Amino acid sequence: MLLIAIVTIIIAFVFTFTNGFQDSATVAATFIASGSATPRQGIIMVAGMNFLGAILGGSAVAFTLSGLLTITSDVLVLQVILAALIAAAAWNIGAWYFGLPSSSTHALIGGLMGAGITAAGIGSVYWGVAELLTPPHEITGMVKVLLFFILSIVLGLVGGYLMRKCTWLLFRNAKRTINRSIIRVNWVATAGMAFFNGSNDAQKQLGIIALVLLAAGESAILAVPIWARAACAILISLGTLGGGWRIMKTIGNRIFTIKPVHSMDSQISSGLTLGLSTIAGAPVSSTHIITMSVIGVGAAENPREVRWQVGEELILSMILTIPATMILSGALLFLVQLF
């Protein structure tokens, strides 16, 4: 069982790296495309803040994710997690190859659901429906994950739209020199967004690693070890430095032409949404939040300038991620058990 645990943790680290070039690339996209920073400056800053977020961002999201499975067999838990991680990493790499900003978060959640249901039925997933319907009406389990999934997308879209309307009113008579101040604010907003992205994203892998160590008997309680936090922080930063240019091109250029004020609007609204979700312990997708905020900003600026077909492709990718990774991880579980 120790061997399975070691392999699973290695795959979790691989997934963390792919998470870096998938989700973190989205964080840097508007920042760089708007001319607020050079590609080198933007990527280095985002990678650094991702690292700090992973180190200092707490464990609330990790414990939410680690509680999504109710399987009692330790061996089966390890097999399910391994299949889920392979499916999620494969999805990340495929989405990166085609330049689609897909969600690492929902790839992982879909993977856990698919492998878990295949292994032990619907009851293997902690849905949280009973806790929601009975006093004290707690929002927990998969209900919490799915609720914040929908809520974060709506907040990203509406927040981006409202931010653009507010800044239009605020700067409507401003001189062009205001761009210097906007770019400075954009650096701060992007740094905050990258910090919360690193915190939320790294905690998903940390929750998985904590569950693996508990199931393998290497830990007496569900806890996040310091070595795992440090490793995930380094890997998510390296992933940011090493890839993601295809995804940045999609978000930064293909939806509509981004200027510094648009990037600032998107980063502020996205950062607030991601920060609140992280504090609430909800694993959400920074990719989805930023993508929708960019569409919201574009719609507020000029709906005719938004390339809605690109937006439709991105939304389709959002919808397909969970069911696709559920099917993939369910199939992979049989291979994992075979080996």
What does this structure look like?
The protein has 339 residues and is mainly α. The chain has one domain (2-128, 139-338). 78% of the residues lie in helices and 0% in strands. It contains 13 helices and no strands. It has helices spanning 2-33, 39-56, 60-66, 74-97, 104-120, 129-133, 141-171, 178-215, 226-242, 245-254, 260-279, 286-301, 308-338. Helix 4 (74-97) packs antiparallel against helix 8 and helix 7 (141-171) packs antiparallel against helix 11. The model has no long low-confidence stretch (mean pLDDT 87).
Features:
339 residues; mainly alpha; 13 helices; 78% helix
Quick synopsis:
Helix content is 78%, strand content 0%. It is an all-alpha fold and 339 residues long.
Number of helices: 13
Overall average pLDDT: 87
Gap between N and C termini: 13 Å
Secondary-structure class: mainly alpha
The rounded Rg comes to 20 Å
Low-confidence stretches: none
Q: How big a fraction of the residues is strand?
A: under 5%
For the biggest sheet, the summary is:
none
Helix content: over 70%
Shape from CA axes?
Answer: globular
Order of helices and strands: HHHHHHHHHHHHH
Domain count, please report it: 1
* Extended strand count: 0
How would the blueprint of this fold be written?
Blueprint: H1 2-33, H2 39-56, H3 60-66, H4 74-97, H5 104-120, H6 129-133, H7 141-171, H8 178-215, H9 226-242, H10 245-254, H11 260-279, H12 286-301, H13 308-338
Helix pairs in contact: 1-2, 1-4, 1-8, 1-9, 1-10, 1-11, 1-12, 2-8, 2-9, 3-8, 4-5, 4-8, 4-13, 5-13, 7-11, 7-12, 8-9, 8-11, 11-12, 12-13
